[in-house]
Amino acid sequence: MVQYELSFLIPNLQEKEREKILKEIEEKIKSLQGKLEESFIEKKIFAYPVKKYQEGFLGVFAFSLESDRIKEFQNFLRSNQKILREIIERKKPSPLLKRVAKEKKVVLAKKPVKKQKVKIEKLDEKLKEILR
Length: 132
What we know:
The structure is a single chain. The chain has a 4-stranded antiparallel beta sheet, with helices on one face. The protein has helices at residues 15-31, 70-79, 95-103, 120-131; strands at 2-11, 35-50, 53-65, 85-90. It is 36% helix and 34% strand. The relative contact order is 0.20. It has a domain at 2-92: 2-Layer Sandwich (Alpha-Beta Plaits). The protein has 4 helices and 4 strands; from the N terminus they run βαββαβαα.
């Protein structure tokens, strides 16, 4: 499972409507066999109008989900008319996780390609050629 963070904006709605939206998001994560880790929501005044709204709520969900199911989750969010904006970011593995993976010899990311070393003689020749 991959860890993600969802940030979204909703308009200034009644508490029952807000709770309904939050519950729908939680249920969708669970229905996709995801795991909700933490969430919070707070009222914000927007820096600029978002779909003609000056204020609303910022919600953040931290969750784990299989990477092949994230597209379906994004489509669900975009289909909800009450969500003004949303962004899903993939969280980077923590340094502790990297150390544990290294000890167990698990590859988290591709290794960088080795650069070819250039001999000084060839570098000098190229420099002289350029300066001519």
